[in-house]
Amino acid sequence: MTVGGALIFYAMVVGFAGPAGFRRAGWPLRAPRLGAAAVLAAAWSVPVALVLAGVTIALPASALSTDLGQLIGACLVRLRAAYGTPGGAGMVTAGQVLSVATTTRIAWAAGRLAHRRRTEGRRHRLLVRLAGHPRPDLPALVLDYPGAAAYSVAGRHPTVVVTSGAIDLLTKPQLGAVLAHENAHLLARHHRWQTAAALAAAALPIVPLLRETPARVGRLLEMDADELAADHHEPHVLASALVAVASPGGPATGSAPNRAASTLTLTPAGADTAARIHRLLRPPDQLPRRRQTITRAAVVALTVTPLVLAVAPALLALH
Amino acid sequence: MPSPRRSRPFGDLEATVMDRLWTAKRPLLVRDVVDLLSPQRALAYTTVMTVLDNLHRKGWVRRSRDGRAWRYEPVLSRQSYTALLMREALAISDDRAGVLARFVEEIDPEDAAALAAALRDAPEGPRPGTAS
Lengths: 319, 132
Hints:
The complex is a heterodimer of chains A (319) and B (132).
Chain A: H1 2-24, H2 27-30, H3 32-62, H4 67-71, H5 73-83, H6 89-131, E1 132-133, E2 141-143, E3 150-153, E4 159-163, H7 164-169, H8 172-187, H9 190-203, H10 208-230, H11 235-246, H12 268-281, H13 289-318
Parallel strand pairs in A: 2-4
Antiparallel strand pairs in A: 1-2, 3-4
Chain B: H1 12-24, E1 28-29, H2 30-37, H3 45-57, E2 61-66, E3 69-74, H4 78-90, E4 100-102, H5 109-121
Helix pairs in contact in B: 2-3
């Protein structure tokens, strides 16, 4: 049970203490794409650890009772010793339940997600059919809709969509920056990251780290797209477009409240937007190359730790 | 009005039939819809009847008696339905399925005013310009 126990312990620590760690860490804001990769690696290492925990608990004990056990009987005795697996049907069942339940949960979440994607894709096709009209002068599809909004749609025909309301609201440079931001999402394939995050959250929403993954990854990917758009557009223009599009019923007027911007408490959505604006106006220093390398190594380590924990005793026992 | 909870968007056939109802701008008989569809899509009378019946059951069209037949018309205008779809498409902040990435969510008016003020006070750059 030692290896299985270690894996479960690992899943608990990462899954429950992980959010606090990510909240404290400042570096993801300086390297958002790397940050998103770290969040995803940490999140997915939790279900992987749980599945492997089940397998390491069930397998060394249960294989003894099969014909296969006859063939490699001597090895199995050593394997069981290596994994510290106490024999007994109870342990085997517990291990099997853990890995099968986790795998089933992931498969179920994947099915639900696929359904939601189909619905969303269909809604989008319908919108385009009902309200879309071509504008040869813009690298985007225009929807006749009074509200200001812009988004990108992944899929077989990746598209940037902008509403007529946004075109009326924004200046030409602002519109260009917004479209560049959305196009950056598509070019960097951010939707795939977002899908992996949504899947993790849907599979094990009880685990805080996994539950918070879509929001955390989404925030960082928005910053990444801002950064990519700011390569070719004035950051200040993009920031002003953010405020204009985010403001309900058009741009905020001059009648600003008396509260100072630094002391006010923002709603979560407001705080996200504020963080993006702050980042655009005062870009943080790039993460030093050495720290980037270390962080990349840590991301890889996170992903392989459960696997190493699970396989190492077998390799040691059989050599 | 359809229920405020998320509705499934129309299927292909439903969308085609709705399109004809919206374009017609008057209540249509099943026969009218079949005729309007016939150049591009030759559909059986019963098929169109079933689609209209489903749309009625789901609350998207209302119907009135015309002799022995029903006349159908959309409950929502094309613009209202578009707005509904749009609101649903944009209400995805909490359950992104990885299809749609929105530029920025609409925020609280107070937050928006504070951010606009912060932007104006920003050291570099001109005042935030908008087209209006």
